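Rotation project, supervised by the postdoc (A.L.). Task for the rotation student: set up a whole-complex structure prediction and record inputs and outputs verbatim in this book. Inputs entered:
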Amino acid sequence: MAVADIINWILVIVGQILIAIGVMCDLIAAILMIRFPNFYVRLHALTIGSIGGAVVPIVGAALIAIGSPFLGAYRWFLAGAGIVTAMMIYILGAVGSHAIARAAHRSRAAILSPCYVDHLAKDRGEGSCI
Amino acid sequence: MELETWVSTFLVYATVIFVVSFLLYLVRIVKGPTIPDRVIAVDALGFDLAAFLIVLSILLRSPILVVCAVALSLWIYALDIYIAKYLESKELGE
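Outputs recorded:
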């Protein structure tokens, strides 16, 4: 087995471990998205699904693409665009979830159903639980 | 074992779990009680679809599919910002 083959196998195995972690995060996030009680708790499932379930498998797929010569010369294109996509999701997922959470709290669009305390609404003088 | 069959076999199993989790996200999109609930379910579904597209481009041997993943992740971010602006000021802007 040549040295290039060994490097390809190492890249593929590392990429497959990352894809396995990502797929598990994805399944867990989908289950939690159904099981969690209200919007603000479901934000936790959203970030599991977007960072653990999208960034990690995209980086893993890029590593698999680097180590797979059967994809042809375009595999470098796939790897580069995959890493760029992973970086974009890493930044934009967090920014988007913050924006939607802030808007939902300010406009009272989300139902806060098991509500124990809401300090942010209390500071604005809107009562602690609405 | 050959490298190509090893990669393909693994990615077929990963595809099955991806599709199962997409169906579970669809449950929340359909029955979510308020608009933000639906939006965050669409959000997670869209980012995972981008990951699924890249996995699919390795599985189908067509690396050009990755362009769709870049555009899809940017559209999901645009959806977030539009819905946040709509919820705060009840209008979508110019």
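Student's summary: Helices of chain B lie at 3-31, 35-59, 66-89.
Supervisor addendum: The CA atoms of residues 8 and 59 of chain B lie 6 Å apart.
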